[in-house]
């Protein structure tokens, strides 16, 4: 018998039965005592076009019932080496952007204060801004700017939308840099592509020192070389991993608000995520799964599997720190 939370045994209760939680783990009221807290952030108040990511956590919970207890390639059994549970959804406000951000930051701060590593499912990409604030100010961030490995079709470093609105899912990383919760010289964006608002749209990000690896460069160099460079960029200081599901090609992840063709295959995404072991991961999220645009749950399945891959890497780090 292990001392950690365990998923419902699929040989006892079939995967389609029981209450829906992330990875079929227990739902708990607090992150206290957890190594990794699985969190839903059902909020898309920053969405500028096709809304629906507010429904992401519920559908990712549903499709996460397909995940089993061990990783077939690495052999990692996350629930044997780390205490992991579903801490539920953060409190949100669907009709007030600034209050929504404040609630997410407060909820995330309470979780990271326990020492648990957050692994969240959005929600749109604006949810990552309050998460970065909370993680950088929390015990692992030490009040210093974080590094970030960012998988996305979009840089999300625009300035304003709709007459000066500064808080949308197209602006979170410019705000995070301005606020000093992200160190742009330790930020790498992978998979960026698609039409832009203007030719120089990414000039500000590049001028800050962000390394943008466009999709064309990823295709030319491949997952291993790109992640090797990413590891160099973020180094050994605390780093946040953010995975926008629209980084994956819409043929494999259509359920998202801002799809861009020519994206990662799900297999390429898995290849990259499995190489993140050397990163000092302070928190992670999977965002922009929008079930109203999904087909047969395939995008929610991709999101749940990305979450499982990240969870296996994070659990291994927890185990290594415990031993070390
Ligand atoms: Mn994004």
TrEMBL record:
User: Any binding details for the cofactor?
Assistant: Binds 2 manganese ions per subunit.
Give the GO terms filed under biological process for this record.
putrescine biosynthetic process from arginine, via agmatine
A Pfam family in this protein? Arginase
**What general EC class does the enzyme of this chain belong to?**
hydrolase
Entry protein name: Agmatinase
For this protein, the record's Gene3D superfamilies field holds:
Ureohydrolase domain
Q: Sorted alphabetically, which keywords does the UniProt record give?
A: Hydrolase, Manganese, Metal-binding
> Matching CDD domains, A to Z?
Agmatinase_PAH
Q: Which organism is it from?
A: Paenirhodobacter ferrireducens
UniProt superkingdom: Bacteria
As recorded in UniProt, its EC number(s) are 3.5.3.11
- Supply one GO molecular-function term: agmatinase activity
**Per its Swiss-Prot or TrEMBL entry, what cofactor is needed?**
Mn(2+)
